[in-house]
Specification:
7-stranded mixed β-sheet; 4-stranded antiparallel β-sheet
Length: 318
């Protein structure tokens, strides 16, 4: 029996209430409407109470109840901020100082969720960005930093479907970025003469899942490039002026090309050689980054900054 509290009680209803001391009175308030429900031990359903929505109703699960495909590259962030990069496979286990983390739990949780080690330590599951991949690559050489890579990609016009030549791949930081931007329809042709760097670059590309977008060449460029009509070219070698004669046959007419050099005397030498070849629209620059401490009450620059890491030179094939 339910009572309408907006109306006064009848004499019969008053008698029922007084004669039933064991009946529980349950108050349910929803949407500013009150109703009294009578029942023995449990409350009667309230007509204004909405059914609770299943929080997973909008999620799409893969076979086996997984949120991520096996083999997906994930970034796991520890309580102290340490980052682990892992190709998550159901049978794998990540061993950390915080305990063992089962990859099947990571695949079931998905990006943006928290999983726990066998010791109960929380780890955040994130999808790594290109910045994360570049900063975390295994390296044996000085890499090209994201602050330069962003400008290089924009200046050379790298995008889906682009075909770009790179010489001096090193650890593969720029190679990874170029492969990321050319997409599945594009191609990166990367030259590296030193075997240890050639293999290291291949390992970093495999970890990022970008191997299919890159064709590597374990050879010097003393005899030129094997490609024709590429869209762009970037040289990260000590004496780039020695290879300028091979560039016109490898690029499309009017294509952009770039160089990275650590010292001003190398830049001067390269500029002198440009005067003797079909090159125009020359630009020389360096990129400095100063970060700020993200504290609202005392915002100020960090004590250290990423200053000079190299000079960038850009030209067009005319």
């Amino acid at each position: 029996t339910s009572l309408d509290v907006s109306k006064p009680l009848s004499s019969m209803e008053e008698n029922v209430l007084s004669a039933a001391p064991k009946v529980e009175l349950v108050v349910c308030v929803q949407k500013m409407v009150s109703c009294y429900c009578l029942g023995r031990g449990t409350a009667a359903p309230c007509p204004y109470r909405k059914k609770r929505q299943d929080r997973t109703s909008n999620l799409e699960f893969l076979p086996g109840g997984l949120m991520l495909e096996p083999g997906t590259l994930v970034m796991l962030v520890s309580p102290r901020g340490k980052r682990y990069f892992k190709l998550a496979r159901p049978d794998d286990i990540l061993h950390t100082h915080d305990g063992q983390l089962e990859m099947k739990n990571v695949l079931q949780a998905g990006f943006g969720q928290t999983v726990f080690t066998h010791l109960g330590r929380p780890y955040l599951v994130l999808k790594p960005t290109l910045y994360d991949l570049i900063k975390s690559i295994k390296r044996q050489t000085q890499i090209i930093y994201p602050k330069e890579i962003g400008y290089i990609v924009v200046k050379l016009g790298i995008g889906p479907g682009s075909k770009v030549i790179e010489a001096g791949s090193g650890s593969g930081a720029l190679t990874t970025a170029l492969a990321w931007f050319v997409g599945e329809q594009g191609k990166v042709y990367s030259y590296e003469r030193r075997e240890e760097f050639f293999k290291l670059c291949a390992q970093n590309l495999a970890r990022a899942g970008l191997t299919e977008r890159v064709e590597q060449f374990h050879q010097d460029i003393n005899d030129g490039f094997l490609q024709k009509d590429a869209d762009a070219l970037f040289l990260d070698v000590r004496t780039p002026w020695d290879y300028l004669e091979y560039i016109p046959s490898a690029l499309k007419k009017g294509a952009p090309l770039g160089f990275l050099l650590p010292t001003t005397n190398q830049v001067s030498k390269l500029l002198e050689c440009f005067e003797q070849g079909p090159f125009g629209e020359i630009e020389v620059l360096e990129i400095l980054v100063r970060r700020y401490k993200p504290v609202s009450q005392r915002l100020r620059p960090d004590d250290r900054m990423v200053a000079h890491t190299g000079y960038l030179v850009f030209v067009r094939l005319t």
